[in-house]
Amino acid sequence: MKMDADIQFLILSEGKSNILPADIVVRCQPSSVGPVGTVDDETLNGWRWYLATVRSLPHSIGTYIQKVVEDDLVAARQADRDLGTEDFNRWLTMGRLMAVSFGETSLSNEHWQMVKEMERSRKDRLK
């Protein structure tokens, strides 16, 4: 029996995971390699608290930026017919998280452009 659940996973793998399907794949390309350190529990809990809090903050999209986002989604769909509602939902979620990560409750054009650049960069790394 399928049951909706709001559970977050982060899969770190050297290759594609055959165990769990992933909504998005991001190839890591560090700009420099340094010593790998350990992170204490307090820091980890702080990151977890931050991510959970940011995820639950209220958010809105103004009329102007809504039109910009809509036009960008239409253009993206025309350029790539394989894009679907999951991709669009992910982009909107990224926009919301980008805005609230800067402490804003409304998506700005600047943050939307940052989201589009992140997605372009992610796709380039997968090639």
Radius of gyration: 17 Å
- Main beta sheet: none
What structural category arises from helix and sheet content? mainly alpha
Taken as a percent bin, the fraction of beta residues is under 5%
- Strand/helix succession: HHHH
Distance between the termini: 37 Å
Global shape: globular
- Relative helix content: 40-55%
Uncertain segments are none
Overall pLDDT level:
85
Description:
With 127 residues, the chain is mostly helical. The protein has a domain at 56-126. It is built from four helices and no strands. α3 (85-101) packs across α4 (109-126). The longest helix is centred in the C-terminal third of the chain and has 18 residues, at 109-126.
List the helices and strands and how they pair.
Elements: H1 41-56, H2 63-79, H3 85-101, H4 109-126
